[in-house]
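so my prof wants the structure for this chain in the tokens format not the other one, which i didnt know existed until like an hour ago. anyway here's the sequence
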Amino acid sequence: MISIPHLRENYDEILIAFKKRDFDAKNIIDNLLNEDKNRREIQVKLDNKLFESNQLTKEIGKLYKDGKTNEANKKKSLSLKIKNESKNLVEKLSNCEQIIKELQYKIPNIPNIRVPNGKSSTDNKIVFESNKKNKSSVGLTHWELAKKYNLISFDLGSKISGSGFPVYIGKGAKLQRALINYFIDFNTKEGYEEIQVPLLVNSKSATSTGQLPDKDDQMYHIAKDNLYLIPTSEVPVTNIYRNTLLNLKQLPIKMTSYTPCFRREAGSYGSDVRGLNRLHQFDKVEIVRIENPECSYDALNKMLNHVKKLLHSLELPYRILNLCGGDLGFTSAITYDFEIFSSAQNKWLEVSSVSNFETFQSIRLKLKYKDINGKNQFAHTLNGSSLALP
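here's what i got, hopefully its the right format
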């Protein structure tokens, strides 16, 4: 979420920045600022009415004390009128605040200056490539290998749950477990604290990290309990610090977590989603950081280097893409995708996204720290896959 003072003070620059996303923000920001002006006017009226009501209450008390009952009763009628007017103003203020919140939730994060221009994934900028992909050794696709050696059954998963829910068997299951341990151990050696979190979150948690309302249709929802299956451990891990005021000495906070992830991924068909390419349930190890804003882009570089070292240790050819504005996630200020090359599919496949959200999540989370001058400031949040297993 973007703060209203920031929108007001940097209006022209923000409209220009949103052009990177191909997002016409003018109408929605204008409506938001007008509604906020209306809110402030109502608040002033309400404050005046409450002050008037308090003064009148004191006068009435004094009149009764002085035995001036008739005069006090007249004032009491006026007091009741003011209280009714205050009640109406409170309702107007509440409605206004709800409209403001709904408008704020529709505005994506402001792209960082380093985000390239572009409208789709074809405009993403390659910023690093480890080594040349080997086209001569094609080999088998992963779904052919899985079938040949009985590692993964997509048919059993479909039988039990539906498409997009694979069953790992024997060495396939052992490989999953080994990779999870390897990734977690790799992360903890770099100072990330291991966290185990719930797989179900409430709507407040999903809203605080930006999944709701933007990605409501992509999340599995348990209506009876109003709980959501997590699309990534970033959601519960980051929400550990919701409504928290941190001491500057506590920063940075570095966490890692393994969880299954659940995504509806509706409307995708064909070779791009065959086998493990896109699943409704998959395993992922995540790294999350909470940072002093002055240090967050240094932290982002450290996260990128961390994932690079992890992929290098697996001896896999990979590249890093700086996502363009049109391909940038709703909550992200900047995102770098890591892709490994599949010679059998002859394509690059995403294995990690590393993002800086700046204050977009922390404003929703009400996650602050006390700076060197003792002033409360919003922290920066970052996260990355380290790694996604499929």
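also thought this was worth mentioning. The mean pLDDT is 94.
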